[in-house]
Amino acid sequence: MQTKKCGLFSPRLIKNTKKAITYLVLAFFAFVFFMPFYWMVTTALKSPNAIFLNPPQWIPDPVHWENFIKIFKRMPLNDYIVNTLIVSVIPVLGELFAAPMIAYSLTKVPWKGPKYIFPIILATMMIPWQVTQIPMFATWSKLGLVNTFIPLTLPAFFGWAYYIYLMRQFIKGLPNSVIEAARIDGAGEVRILYTIVYPMCKPVLTTITVLIFMGCWNDLNGPLLFLQDSSKYTLSIGLQMFLTGTQNEWDLLMAASALFTLPLVVIFFLAQKQILGGISTTSGLK
Question: Among 33, 72, 152, 173, who pairs with 87 as Cys (CB 3.0-4.6 Å)?
């Protein structure tokens, strides 16, 4: 037994070796995924002549902070940011209102509808955006709502299939005893939803908030389809226009890209624990 403990291939050594290999692999992939973001930020702080130096200049010297000031002069970034916040925050509020309500009715309210409605909701997830964009544009055009933010925000108040699915999976795992006790005490379904179920759904609600905000912030197809007035353009459209309109001004383009990406990075790192907790709970992982 002592020989096994002190041998070259002892269980402790094997365990430590596996852990070290795991950390090395994770560190490698973290480096691979971090490098594009690092290169974008450093390029945004370089002069045009320093961008294509060989060997590359990994640390800007000198640092050109004025590139970010030039971007605000070249693009109406303030308007773009306000418009992007409108089409990102309002859908979050709409989905936080609709998705828990629909998911609760599909899991905890005793009626016969869920076995028919839930498969239909899942079926809508199989329809690509490319198939629905022309009918959607025609519908909103007949309603006279093209070139407004309504087509980009109002649908969220009726629920999106994927987030309804996430909420359903989470609420399905909540104990029925708590809800039944509230019903016995005379609480209605709306009161149970907002005073009992909502506080218990914090992880998945945070996950939905971050995912919707990031998706709407990055969305290019929706604003490009429905918005026609340049004063209503979002950051994604403004960045695309700046890309096609500049003459290889990579320093300014990377500065604009950094401003576009930085809020998403900050939000993700602040909420990563809640996101992982919400996804692991709804997927059945422990």
Answer: 152
Statement to judge: residues 17 and 137 lie in one domain: no
Same-domain status, 169 and 244: yes
In 126-165, which positions are buried (b, 16+ CB within 10 angstroms) versus exposed (e)? Answer: eeeeeeeeeebeeebeeeeebebbebbbebbeebbbbbbb
For the whole model, what pTM was predicted? Answer: 0.83
**What is the spatial distance between Cα 232 and Cα 189, in angstroms, rounded to a whole number?**
40
Query: For residue 245, what are the CA distances in angstroms to 27, 35, 220, 248, 250?
Result: 38, 27, 17, 9, 12
Chain segment 51-108, per-residue pLDDT in tens: 888 888 888 888 888 888 888 888 888 899 999 999 999 999 999 999 999 999 999 9
Number of domains in the chain: 2
The pLDDT of residue 282 is above 60: no
Pair (12, 83) in one structural domain: no
